[in-house]
């Protein structure tokens, strides 16, 4: 793990003050997001049964944390990677209508994550999902919802800048849209992460669309599971973060697959066997609502607004010993 030590980094808040700041960020942003998107908070599972097909298999190589349940003959359950699929099922089960949505606190363990200043094996995010009509499965709808999420992000920065003198507003008024292919065409000799850094630094805030499919170069901008986002109607909200001089992804979101795009993406990904799982089968049988949804990193959001150098300053996790020693030496207090 490489630890980035910002030049002249000063800790504006001690640990107790930081905890107060974390609560301020979460309370305000949560209310703002719910208001912008018409969302209701619900409870959500920490673990699911693998045979339901509800767990997010991310890039397909990450190993979920699993354990046996004693009272159920040691039946195996998995800690969720995200709630991308569960939310869609919940919208139907809980009786939500078109134009309404839900959000929840999602906690996950991603044991195969490569940790650094912005990555941890502990993942906490607001997972949200909203019902739309089939006719609204288009780019205009996606952009409209992205702008609402970004408004919640922008309004929270304005709020936090009023609470703390050291926090200055840095986000632009509007978010910039570009597809992953357009970005590759602009910077064909750079890696996807290098392209993100360039465009984020130039625009301040950007939504990179169409992530998951193969680009003209034969490479993917980034991996996406084939059975929740429609790769033609999804993307990432990324902002420039001057504390670390990097592009910081705050949210991954998109319009979800319908029966046609699900089959197409399962075929491309060579995992047609997933079509037989209960969740995927319900989708193919048109038994679930058409939706748009996403995840917004809680620790990432807190790190960004409080201008922290390491995600471990706003969440309690575990880190390599050498990282903890280096952080302490450079006045980066990990929780």
From TrEMBL:
Pfam families: AsnA
One example GO MF annotation: catalytic activity, acting on a protein
UniProt-listed Enzyme Commission number(s): 6.3.1.1
GO cellular component terms attached to this protein's record: cytosol
Protein encoded by which gene: asnA
GO biological process, one term: L-asparagine biosynthetic process
Catalytic activity reported: L-aspartate + NH4(+) + ATP = L-asparagine + AMP + diphosphate + H(+)
Protein name, as recorded: Aspartate--ammonia ligase
CDD domains: AsnA
NCBIfam families to which the protein is assigned, alphabetical: asnA
PANTHER family cross-referenced by the UniProt entry: ASPARTATE--AMMONIA LIGASE (PTHR30073)
InterPro entries associated with the record: aa-tRNA-synth_II, aa-tRNA-synth_II/BPL/LPL, AsnA
Organism from which the protein derives: Variimorphobacter saccharofermentans
Cellular localisation: Cytoplasm
């Amino acid at each position: 793990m490489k630890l980035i030590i910002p030049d002249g980094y000063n800790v504006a808040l001690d640990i107790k003050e930081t905890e107060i700041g974390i609560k301020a960020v979460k309370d305000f942003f949560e209310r703002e997001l719910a208001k912008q998107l018409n969302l209701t908070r619900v409870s959500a599972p920490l673990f699911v049964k693998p045979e339901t097909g509800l767990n997010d298999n991310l890039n397909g190589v990450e190993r979920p944390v699993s354990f046996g349940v004693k009272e159920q003959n040691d039946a195996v359950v998995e800690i969720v990677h995200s709630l991308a699929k569960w939310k869609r099922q919940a919208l139907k089960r809980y009786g939500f209508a078109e134009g309404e949505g839900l959000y929840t606190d999602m906690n996950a363990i991603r044991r195969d994550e490569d940790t650094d200043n912005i990555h941890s094996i502990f993942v906490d995010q607001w997972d949200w999902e909203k019902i739309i009509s089939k006719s609204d499965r288009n780019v205009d709808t996606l952009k409209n919802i992205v702008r609402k999420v970004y408004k919640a992000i922008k309004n929270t920065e304005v709020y936090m800048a009023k609470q703390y003198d050291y926090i200055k507003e840095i986000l632009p008024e509007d978010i910039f849209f570009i597809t992953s292919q357009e970005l590759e065409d602009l910077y064909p000799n750079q890696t996807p992460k290098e392209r993100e850094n360039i465009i984020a630094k130039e625009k301040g805030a950007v939504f990179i669309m169409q992530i998951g499919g193969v680009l003209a170069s034969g490479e993917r901008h980034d991996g996406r599971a084939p059975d929740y986002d429609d790769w033609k109607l999804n993307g990432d909200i990324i902002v420039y973060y001057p504390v670390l001089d990097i592009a910081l992804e705050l949210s991954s979101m998109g319009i979800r697959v319908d029966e046609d795009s699900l089959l197409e993406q399962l075929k491309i990904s060579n995992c047609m066997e997933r079509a037989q799982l209960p969740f995927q089968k319900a989708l193919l049988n048109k038994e679930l609502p058409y939706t748009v949804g996403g995840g917004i990193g809680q620790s990432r959001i807190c790190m960004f607004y409080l201008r922290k150098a390491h995600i471990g300053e706003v969440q309690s996790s575990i880190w390599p010993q050498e990282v903890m020693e280096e952080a302490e030496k450079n006045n980066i207090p990990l929780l």
